Amino acid sequence: MNSKNTLINTETNRKLAQAVYTLNLRKKRRPLDFIEPLNHPQLNQKAFWGSTKRNKAAFGGNRSGKTLTGGAYLVKKCLDTPNQDWWAATWADMSTPVQQKEIYKWLPKDASVKYARFSEQRGFSNKIIIFANDSKIRFKTYDQGRESFQGTAKDGIWLDEEPPEEIVNECKARLMDRNGELIRTMTPLNGITYTHDEMVLNDKNDPEVAYWFFDSTYNPYINQEAQKRIIGNYADKESEVRQKGHFINLTTGNAYYPFTENNIISISNPVITDYYHSDKFPLEVSCDFNVDLMCWNIGQEVNGIDYTFDFVELEGQANTDRMCLELKSKKYETSPGRFTSHNGKYIFYVDIAGSQRHPEASKTNIAIIQDNFPDADIFYQKIRNIKDRIDSTNSRLCNSNKQVRYYIHERCKRLIKDYRQVTWEHLMNKNKAGKLTHASDGESYRMHYKYDLTGKPEVNVWKGI
């Protein structure tokens, strides 16, 4: 190689080294400029960043990049928009080593940040970051309690890992004035909680709700061999939560343990995406009589398969007459876009308490139902123990041959919540159940009457007084 070529190669290498040095320096000073959010159906950071929804969440497994997504998103928001005022909150033992450290990683190390003093041991001094455009990030912890989350209006709040529900409610109040954003990133190790109901079920039908599941299997920045080895050592359910971020009841004693997503009639269930009402079959109504929440489920049996596809409920007072009126006024979808009233037979499966008359009432609950539905069959029975009716229900949800004989429409959110969350402790101690158990209790009367596993049940057919 001649001296001319040597000089050319040396100069090329020098320029390449200088370019690499300059690039690394820019990455260090402005790391956010070089982030490339993943765009994958199972780990879609890009969709999270691009969404304009005001209430959104990333539910991810361990090392799936959910905290990275939240931290980078928050810093970018404050850099791009002047005068933003955000909170970043998590549990106290995670604030400095996880949340604050993640935010510092994405923070520019230049004049765009006016005040940010960070140390590995103490986190950010005074628990605040001030940007040159007057945007601010303040840090809080769930351990400080609900009252510490009261105060002035905010543009946004990032909650990392699941806080107590009362703190979420307080945060929402802080966001009302400015129509702010609530973002959440978490691994749902607490099982099926209020977060699942709010986000996945969207039980309030909030149009601003959006969520994504981040599967750590698709994170290219971690050692996948180590991920499989470590997560594979957990029990199956916990392994799924830690890998995929799915909501699964991890507590022991779940009463309706066979219930899965396969039992839900929804567009995402390839087995059954919808159910249409028919006057050819009786309308079966399961009733649990209760003071603060009365919920009746509505279904039909077709070719040996049970479908529960609608409900009526009354919260805050017990009023069987009103429930009957609601039921009679119901319209059901008989084909796509076509609704009609039920003109066929009614069958009621009720709590035996419905045959008892309280001193303040002139009639029993069952008598009121018969006044409103004079041609209906009304069945009630003395169930020997709770386990009998739960076993009958579970055998329909999924039998020993893994066959599903009972489907619930996704609109029946309270019943689905029961099947996911009710434990034996809730059934044995109603004081701990709150508003759980009432919807599923009614269904269990229906299933136990129709599919008793312990022999022919002693059934009473209501004949009036």
Derived from helix and strand composition plus strand pairing, the structural class reads: alpha/beta
Mind telling me the C-alpha Rg? 28 Å
Mean pLDDT, rounded to whole units?
87
**The CATH homologous superfamily of the largest domain:** P-loop containing nucleotide triphosphate hydrolases
Major sheet: arrangement of strands: 3-6-7-2-8-9-1-10
Architecture per CATH nomenclature, i.e. the level-2 architecture of the largest domain: 3-Layer(aba) Sandwich
**Number of helices in the DSSP assignment:** 14
Strand content: 15-25%
| Basic shape | elongated
Description:
With 465 residues, this protein is α/β, with parallel strands linked by helices. The protein has 2 domains: 33-244, P-loop containing nucleotide triphosphate hydrolases (Rossmann fold), CATH 3.40.50; 261-461, Nucleotidyltransferase, domain 5 (2-Layer Sandwich). 33% of the residues lie in helices and 21% in strands. The protein is built from 14 helices and 20 strands. It has helices at 3-29, 45-50, 66-80, 92-106, 165-175, 194-200, 224-231, 236-244, 320-329, 365-372, 386-397, 413-421, 424-428, 438-450, and strands at residues 55-60, 85-90, 113-115, 118-119, 123-124, 128-131, 136-141, 156-160, 181-186, 209-214, 264-265, 283-288, 293-302, 305-315, 332-335, 338-340, 346-350, 377-381, 406-409, 459-461. The strands form 4 sheets. The chain has an 8-stranded mixed sheet with strand order 3-6-7-2-8-9-1-10, with helices on both faces. A hairpin with a 3-residue loop joins strand 4 and strand 5. Helix 9 runs parallel beside helix 10. The longest helix has 27 residues, at 3-29. The radius of gyration is 28 Å and the shape is elongated. The N and C termini lie far apart (112 Å). The mean pLDDT is 87.
